[in-house]
Amino acid sequence: MSNLFKTNLYLKAFGFFKIPLIFYVNPKVILLNSEEIKVAIPLNRRTRNHYGSMYFGALAVGADISVGLFAMSLVKKSGADMLLLFKDFQIEFHQRAEGETIFSCRDHEKINNQIALVLRDRKRVNEQVCGQAFVPSVSKDPVCSFKLTVSLKQRV
């Protein structure tokens, strides 16, 4: 089994058993490596608002998954056992998401530095991580930019 297949299987199970809204919007990880993650959410009956664009709740789920799953994959790669929470969330909408939306996060350096600080200081560390969402079928310009403050703490 490929790592991408395993990641998507984990995401579906996590959504089904822990956070049903993630399962409901049916996200799919299309790229995951040590430098970047890309998550796709389809525009369909479940994610579309009455204006025909993606509902902002579905956009929030995509931002959550792209940053959270990316951070957890980097934590796992480090071999550490950590707890992840989101401290705050900011999103700026630039245009309507009128197609399948791709959520991207490339802040691997910030997250890796955060992991190193947690391991060194053994205290909770907060770091603001940024990402963007695109609808490639419509435009190369981002439909939204988001910032989530990731809070990591080593599990005791």
The CATH topology assignment is Thiol Ester Dehydrase, Chain A
Major beta-sheet overview: 6 strands, antiparallel
Count of helical segments? 4
CATH architecture: Roll
| Envelope shape | globular
- Please tell me how large the radius of gyration is: 15 Å
Assembly annotation:
single chain
H/E order of the elements?
HHEEHEEHEE
Give the end-to-end Cα distance, rounded to a whole number of Å: 32 Å
Helix content: 25-40%
CATH H-level superfamily title: Hotdog Thioesterase
Query: Uncertain spans, ≥5 residues at pLDDT below 50?
Result: none
Which structural class do the helices and strands define?
A: alpha+beta
Describe the 3D structure.
- With 156 residues, this protein is α+β, with helices and mostly antiparallel strands.
- The chain has one domain (3-154): Thiol Ester Dehydrase, Chain A, CATH 3.10.129.
- It has helices at 3-17, 20-25, 56-78, 108-121, and strands at 28-32, 37-41, 82-93, 101-105, 125-134, 142-154.
- A hairpin with a 7-residue loop joins strand 5 and strand 6.
- The longest helix has 23 residues, at 56-78.
- The protein is globular.
- The mean pLDDT is 97.
